[in-house]
Each structure stands twice: as C-alpha cells, then as structure tokens.
What we know:
globular, 8 strands, 16 helices, alpha/beta
Amino acid sequence: MAKVSVIGAGSWGMAIAKVLENNGHEVMVWSHREEEAERLREKRENEAKLPGVRLSERTEFTSDLKTAVSGRDLLILAVPSTAVRGTARKMASCGVEPGAVVVNLAKGIEESTLMILTDIIEQEIPGANAAVLSGPSHAEEVGHGIPTTVVTGAKDRATAEYIQNIFMNQVFRVYTSPDMLGIELGGALKNVIALAAGVADGLGCGDNTKAALITRGIAEMSRLGVAMGGRIETFNGLTGIGDLIVTCASVHSRNRKAGYLIGQGRTMQEAMDEVKMVVEGVHSAKAAMVLSGKYGVDMPIVEEVNKVLFENKPAREAMGDLMLRDKKIENPELPWN
C-alpha cells in the first residue's frame, strides 16, 4: 500500500483517486479551495464535474498543499495544463522531497515557452522525478470502472514500473514507455485535431469526414512529434492514434464539444463558456502552430483550426480550404514501381 496524493479535485483527479482507492492505497486529494475540500469531505464526490463517482471515507480531502505533499510516496498532478507551472511552483515551496515521483496527468504544451509539462514540473520542482500518465481515458468512464488502457512514461524503467504497479488493476491497464516526449506531444496535439473533428460535426459533416480528420490528423501529429525527437511507435499507439480516436469521437470530449459549438456558429469564447471546463486544445493550438514553423512541418489542419479560433475565419470556409489544397501523395516515402 502506498501513500498517494492527488493534486487537483476536478473530474480527472477524482476519477484517478477512485482507481487508487480501489487498489487499496492511502489516498489524499487536494483542492485549491477550502470550501470545495469541505464539500468533498461531506459529499465524497464532485457533483459538478464527476457526478456519481463517490470516494469512501478512507480518502482524505485537504486544501493545505503542504499537508498534501509531505511524506507521500507518490504525487499525482491532476490540474489543467495552464495551471501546471503555478501549482508545481507552489508544491516546491511546500517542500517536495528531492527525488519525489510527480506524475503529470494534464495534456498540453505551454504556449509562452513551448515546453511539455513534465519539463515544466522538473524546472519548477528541482530534483523531482517527473513522469506522465496518458492515453484514451475519459474521467467519466475511468471513474465508473469502465475498462481503460493507458501508458506511463518515465526517464527510467524502474520509475515507470513503480507507477504501473500502483495504478494497474482489472479495469485499468497500464503500459510503460521511455518516450515521455512522444506521450506528452500526442496528448497535447490530439486535442487540436479533436477541435477540428468537432467543428466538422457542427457543420453537419459525416463519418467520412471524421475518418479523414483522424487519419490526416495523426499524420500531422506524427510528423511534428518525430521532428521534435519523439518516436513514431508512440504516435501509432495508445497516446497517439488511440487518444485521438476517443477524443474526436466521444460525447465526453470537451474539445470535440467546443469544436461542435464553433461549427454551429458560436465564437471560441462562447463555446468555452458553454463547455464550462478547460478546453485544452484551444491553449495548445497556438503552440502547435509555432512548433510547426520552428521545425518546418506542414500541419494544415492545425493551421485552419488556428484561423477559425483566432482569426474569425468561418468554419465552413476552413473546411473547404482543407479539401481544395494542392494535390498530394498520401505517403511520399513509398516508391513507385
């Protein structure tokens, strides 16, 4: 049994706390607001963000970050990507022990620095052993025990296997991987493609369009990821194509929902306000566009998403421009006979 703290009491934090609780670990969940922590102590569930997923009396809730990070075997960072740096900095000021394993659950790229989130954690918490847990894993399904498979990435095999052993059970299968960069990039970039898939749904397009966006989307993600040093095997796996499929297709996907609303005519801000949760793809879209230029990678879907989000380009016009791009070979590396 391990002492584990989940830093963040949103839908994903509560879902992962349920997994850990079911595995018999000693779990503590931190909320940044005392009133929320008090409500969780009373109700044992986040009724607004993950209704119906109740934690037992064995799980503790606190708003004291020092209490949450002190004397724990494992720290799980379950805050939105935009809050990772600030939260990690606060954790460091509370005395996170050198060598502490900090597992990132968020999916994003920091817009101002183009850094992946595990790098931010290690920058803000000197001596931290940052790792990542990612894959096709909606909190709504994980919290209710629906079979789910994810990947944990770490710098060394021992850390990855330790995390694997902490989390894995009969409905939550965990693979290990050394490709932290590929895992993080896959998790961030698929949200941008999911916005495009949602826009297509909002425009009334069909399954053919969704399949095209998923397929060409993974091509864009892979090109950039490999150019940055990630492995193609990662983008062909759970944290690449797997996560992309579920985020583009699921009713639980906030990125797809935001895109759907934009396709129906809402502005970006109106869509984000209606979703009522952080839409990670909006924050990653600009970073992805900058990275595509930096590494000389063609990313037409990401480019059109940026134009719709930030330049007020009509969604239907963006879709038409994607369809009427210059003629291409699907796989240029394949030789003709």
